[in-house]
Amino acid sequence: MYVKAKAKGSEELGIHSEVVQLPADTTEDQLLKEVAKLNNRADVHGILVQQPLPAQIRTEKAVAAVSPLKDVDCFHPVNVGLLLIGTPRFVPATPAGVQELLLRSGNDPAGKRVTILGRSNIVGKPLAALLVQKGRGGNATVTVAHSATKDIAAVLRTGEIIVVAIGQPRFVKADMVRKGAVVIDVGINRVPDSATKSGTRLVGDVDFDAVKEVAAAITPVPGGVGPMTIAMLLTNTIRAAEAVGG
Ligand code: NAP
């Protein structure tokens, strides 16, 4: 779904995109060679290695193989470091989408207590790094909760803004959210639903119908963060092309 959305978004913007689909039994070496080929192509400005990767491929190897100048996902250790010290080359797409969504909906995180549930390298950790920076869209007081956090409900209730990215369908219930909080649901989970033609449907990590009764604002799934992620990814790609005069 995400790969298709990226290709469609690129086409709409007039960005040429290619999907290199490798078999599930591709070796790490084969993948790294494919990435090296794309690194060397002057007509390619952005490279995304779609995660999750098969077990035989180490994610950190794949991430570090992408040229930092073409790393529009902002997963390369150099780009992650630049983000952390407040001089980003790229901003990772999902955290950037969450930040922009907050700003444009009139919920500037500055001075607010923000609780993030989930600490992945893709969402939770870079989002914390972004919101804690001094400057536009930052200046938040950030708490990051995860599977080892004691009393997650109590920690979540401290958040004036809550961002959830754990991959657990409808995990966050109404009693875990303070009245008037702004709730951003990053989760995308496919669950069985006999009422649909496909027999499944997409839900977030938040119990939307219950939480919307206590939240001041809440993002839907699908919709909400997903399209923002695509938009920010395309922004990074344009930035990457412009940086080399493309
Ligand atoms: P991930 O790499 O699997 O990380 C999940 C994180 O959630 C981990 O830090 C894990 O804690 C924590 N966690 C899992 N179960 C938990 C629980 N019961 N209580 C507390 N913490 C728990 O996932 P991800 O890549 O960040 O993705 C999270 C969700 O966001 C998924 O549904 C994914 O599809 C979605 N997503 C959406 C977008 C978008 O554009 N909308 C983009 C990226 C991801 P530990 O670290 O302690 O294990």
Overall description:
The mean pLDDT is 97. The strands form 2 sheets. This protein has a 5-stranded parallel β-sheet with strand order 2-1-3-4-7. It has helices at 2-13, 28-39, 59-65, 77-84, 93-104, 124-131, 152-157, 208-211, 225-243; strands at residues 113-117, 141-145, 161-164, 182-185, 189-192, 200-203, 217-218. The longest helix has 19 residues, at 225-243. Strand 5 (189-192) and strand 6 (200-203) form a beta hairpin. The radius of gyration is 19 Å and the shape is globular. The protein has a domain at 93-226: Rossmann fold (3-Layer(aba) Sandwich). The chain is built from 9 helices and 7 strands. It is of the alpha/beta class. Residues 94, 117-120, 122-124, 146-148, 152, 165-168, 171, 186-189, 225-226, 229 line the site of NADP nicotinamide-adenine-dinucleotide phosphate (NAP). NADP nicotinamide-adenine-dinucleotide phosphate (NAP) binds at residues 94, 117-120, 122-124, 146-148, 152, 165-168, 171, 186-189, 225-226, 229.
Task: Tag the structure with descriptive keywords.
246 residues; alpha/beta; Rossmann fold; 5-stranded parallel β-sheet; two-stranded antiparallel ribbon; 36% helix; globular; binds NADP nicotinamide-adenine-dinucleotide phosphate
In terms of topology, how is this protein built?
Elements: H1 2-13, H2 28-39, H3 59-65, H4 77-84, H5 93-104, E1 113-117, H6 124-131, E2 141-145, H7 152-157, E3 161-164, E4 182-185, E5 189-192, E6 200-203, H8 208-211, E7 217-218, H9 225-243
Parallel strand pairs: 1-2, 1-3, 3-4, 4-7
Antiparallel strand pairs: 5-6
Helix pairs in contact: 1-9, 5-6, 5-9
The structure holds NADP nicotinamide-adenine-dinucleotide phosphate.
